[in-house]
Structures are given as structure tokens and as C-alpha cells.
Amino acid sequence: MALTDVCLILEGSYPYVVGGVSTWTHHLIKALPDINFSIVYVGVSKHQVQKMEYRLPENVRQFNEIYLLDPVIIRGARRHISRQAWRHVEDFVRRLEAGDPTTFNELAESLTGGGSPALTPYDILYSRRFWDIMTGVYRRNFPNLSFIDFFWTCRFLMLPLFQLLYAPLPEAKCYHATCTGYAGLLGALARRRYGAPLVLTEHGIYTKERMIEIAQAAYIYNEVVVDYVPRRELGLLQSLWMSKFEMLARICYSESNKIITLYGGNQKTQVLHGAPVEKCEIIPNGIDVDRYTALADAGAIKDPGFHVAFVGRISPIKDVKTFIRAARIVVDRVPSAVFYLLGTPDEDVDYYEECRALAELLELGTSLRFMGSVDMSEYYPKMDLVVLTSVSEAQPFVVIEAMAVGVPCVATNVGACSELLFGASEDDRRLGSAGLVTNVNSPEETGRAIVSLLENSDLRAGMGRVGRERAKRYYQRKDVIDRYRDVYRSMIEAFDTGRASAPTRAVPRAARS
Questions:
Q1: Beta strands in 178-321 (DSSP E)
Q2: Fold observed for domain 1-286+476-513
Q3: Would you list the domain boundaries of the chain?
Q4: Average pLDDT for the chain
Q5: Model pTM greater than 0.90?
Q6: Rounded CA gap, 380 and 311, in Å?
Q7: Sheet holding 368-370: strands in order across?
Q8: Architecture of the structural domain at 289-474
């Protein structure tokens, strides 16, 4: 396959998931027809993939898929198995809890630094030598844990890493990972293998999002005793998972030529976790502002009463249950209020059914309506408020879109929501407020904020005007695209003129079953 300009590496998003990173990716590719792309999609298993939600633009020349838990790579030709390779495997397992990227770097060089692999995933995960390494590490460091829990946790921790070490990658002049984690690791490996620059764009901070998931995951055993005082502590196995993701972030930060995020709060977190400040840059999300302002200017006829929308996936990270509980509080005070859930339940059907059951339990009836996936150009102009109750966000498109339409927002104090609604700079803040910010997981506070806006039409109108002006000044998609075009051109030029810092590596032959 021919060398492409940019290889985008995406994890669990485009082109199979709608919204967020996928929306950003699709618009970015389409807006840069003069640049050709290859795409690497990283997923859990091909058995979980449904259908493509986006049609790939014409300037996408290659599309590859890598699945972390599908053991495609089993046996194959290899160099003479060296004792040094096994020592690096043992050192990596032994020091996994420390999350030291040095051990993984040595492991990658030892296993795949030559023309063919020193060890295959089959050797590592199914051999007696690996069993002996695991039992030795267990006896020394985790004797009070169940060995079965330790063994299977480590296998699931390491299988994706070994899969990625041997994964085939398209050649490109620039690699662009859309998160740290597995996508970021692939980007780092590609930079070493082909000597091309690596760009990282973190929409949300990957390690923070994984921390939330790991702390709540029922499938990871937690030996921490819960007594009469409620507390949340990570157990040893949960800490192993977090150490791995922290290690992957440090590897990606170290190998990246440029580290981009959406807003200042994220950048501070990146630097705190090891991102060199001189590599960091902020490029916010952007939308076609004129399209959204035109929706409001068209003068849609609103139905009687007040209309409040939640826009997004029906999933736990969006904390839809807080929205539903807030709706009950508001309807008691403002009976004419109607709440709309505008989003797909496909990501977590069980959670969706729990939300429906909660709405029924709270006897909301027709005051709360599950509408599924809809055309937002039809709904935005009819809304009086948009509400976001997420426990984690980056820089949500829904808030920017609502502002451009002139709809005030109530949002939890996560990600860039505060900057979006109150302003990101001194000049921006002078415009005023485009909405209200509440604490996470607080139906009462969310409900009070909604009531305060519904009962004050002048306040709503003023916030709507501020939102439209802020979107127009700071969140134009054209400005975002121009900045990424400049980033790509500088990286491609560096590659073409031989200034890329990483040396070209021989590509290991991927062993296949």
C-alpha cells in the first residue's frame, strides 16, 4: 500500500460510533481533501463491531482494524529465542505495578526490534516459561491475593500490549493518535518503526476516564474492605490496571512531537502526568456556527410550555439518571416543563432500561420522553434549555451547538463546560454567562438551576445572546481546520526533509495463525 500523508489511529470511535471524537474525525478528514489519510481502528473484538456509522471520505486510502482481544497472532517464524527477551518479559511483569515505561520500551525493542519477532504472543501467553514468571511474581509481590484473580488479570492486562507489538501498521508521513492508551501506544510504535512524526490529540484525558471505569468495574476484584465508613480505594488489581494506562500515557507523551488538547484544564493535567510543556498546544473543538445560528433565525414555532433537552448517548458516564431525577424536581415546580432524552441507547442497553424504569418509578409520564437518535436541526430551535449531567467530558459539541443556536445550558462542572459557559480568557469572560454550572451527581442542584432559568425569560434570552456571540468568536470549525492543516504540513515537511527524529526500524513480520 502506498505511503499516505497522515495515519489516524482511533480507539473505539470512528467510524463505528456516532458523536464526539467520531464527529471531529469525520469533519477533519472531509475538510482536508488535499491530504490523504489511512485509518487504523482499534477495537476490543470484531464480534462486537456492528456497522459503520460514517461513510469514509474519498481521501481515505486505507482502512485497517486491530482487535485487542482477538488472538489473531499466535504462531510464526522467529529468531532464535534469546534469554534476554525472556528477561525483559519477566522484568516487565515484575515492574508492571510501578507503571515504568522503560521496562516496556526495553521489551518492545527486545521482542520486535529485528526483522522477525524474538518471541510471539503464543510463546509469551501459553508457554511454561511465562507460567513460571507469573507464579514467581505472584509469590514475591501478591501472596495475599487469589492467584486465579491475579493470573487472569495479568493476562487481560498484557494480551492487548503484545497484540499491538506485532500489529501491522500502514506507512505514513505523520501519525495522529486521538488518545493515549492503546491508540497512543500504536502511534509510539509507528514513530519508532518508520521514523515519522507523531501527533497526539486528547479530547478527554484517557487515564482519568479509565480511572472512573476501573473504580466502578465489578469485573475487577477489589480486596479493599468496605466498613461502615463509605470510601473508594483501588485494590491491588485495580491499581495494576491504572499503572498500565499511566505507563501508556507516559510512552505516548514521550514519543509525541506535538501534544494537543481542547482546553486549558486538560493541558494542565497532561503536563502534571508527564507531557513536556514545550510540546503542548490547545486547539478547541469547532462547529459550522453559521449553520446553527441559521436554525434559530429560521423562527421555528415552539409548542406551549417549556422544553428541556438532554443530548447524548444514554450511558453511565453521561449520568442520565441525574437528569431524570432533576426532571422530577422541576416538574413538581413547573408542571408545563417537558424533558427530552435525545440520544441512542445502543452503547449500554441495560443502563437504558434502568433509566426507563427510573422514569416510570418517578411517575414522570409524558413529562419525560425517550426520543432516540433524532435530527438535532429539528429539535435545537424548539428547546428552551439544554442540560448536560455527565460525570466526565472533554469539550462537548452539544454545548457549543446549543450556544450557537442561542439555547442556554445547564452543565456539570466537568471538562471544558465551565470555560464554554463562562469564558476561557479574560476577553471571553467579559461577554458574560451562556448558562449555569452544577456539581456532578446532584439532581437537586441541577433541578434548581433549571427552574431558575425557566422562571426568568430575560435571563434565558441574555444567556442565549452571549452563547451565540461566544460560538461565533471562538468556536468556528474553519479556524480549527486551518490549525490542523498547519500542524500536518509541518510534520509532513519534517518527514520529507529527513528531520523526523526517530530512526527507521525494520518491520517485524506479524505471525498469524
A1: 198-202, 258-261, 280-282, 306-311
A2: Rossmann fold (3.40.50)
A3: 1-286+476-513, 289-474
A4: 88
A5: no
A6: 10
A7: 368-370, 337-342, 306-311, 385-388, 409-412, 435-438
A8: 3-Layer(aba) Sandwich (3.40)
